[in-house]
Amino acid sequence: MAYVKWILLAIVAILVASVVHYTLPQTDIVRITDTYEKRVDVGENRLFWSNASSGFSTSQPGRDVFFIQTRRDDGDVMVYRNEDTGWGWPPFFKFNTSNLQAEANDLRSTGEAPQWVRLRHYGWRNEMFSIFPNALSVEPIASPAEGKGWPIGTIVVLTLLVAAIWAVTVRIRRFFARRRARREA
């Protein structure tokens, strides 16, 4: 029975870690190669797209989504979607999709004259299921050597999450210790 308990705890920990990793913002150093708008019919992977009610008509099956095509310093290609999160999850309250697309379009560059940017995003890229990370902001930088910077917000959120887990764990242990003490008395 102890193995089952540890397996269930491991599954819960993996699920929580997955949600946290998907939701917390990450930073990539990239060069923007192109920006475009595409009509998307969200299907099986609707969980990984923003809520349709944030700026889109819910009566139509598809919607227009902005995309930002990039190339990393090592040559790998990465595509980001750019859509509002609205008031939904994750709580970034992003309403600046058009402005961000204009900024990204202005920062496009070629391999001969690269303009590097620090692109903040959340989410994962999965080519098989057509899942794209959602761009949150772009900031021009001089070179990839400048780095990604310190993720202060992520550090604060993770610290608060660990503190909350610790507080709940301590209270649960105290509860069962008092219960055991009452039974023994």
Q: What percentage of residues falls in helices of 4 or more residues? A: 25-40%
Number of helices: 3
Please name the CATH architecture of the largest domain: Beta Barrel
Shape: elongated
Provide the CATH top-level class of the largest domain. Mainly Beta
Largest sheet: 5 strands, antiparallel
Low-pLDDT parts are none
Domain count: 2
CATH fold-level label of the largest domain: OB fold (Dihydrolipoamide Acetyltransferase, E2P)
Mean pLDDT: 87
- State the distance separating the first and last CA atoms: 27 Å
How many E strands? Answer: 5
Q: What strand line-up does the widest sheet have?
A: 3-2-1-4-5
**Structural Rg:** 21 Å
As a percent range, the share of strand residues is 25-35%
Structural class computed from helices and strand pairing = alpha+beta
Helix-strand blueprint:
Blueprint: H1 2-23, E1 26-41, E2 62-72, E3 77-82, H2 97-106, E4 116-122, E5 134-141, H3 152-184
Antiparallel strand pairs: 1-2, 1-4, 2-3, 4-5
Keywords: Membrane, Transmembrane, Transmembrane helix
InterPro entries: Phage_phiNM3_A0EWY4
Protein name: DUF1523 domain-containing protein
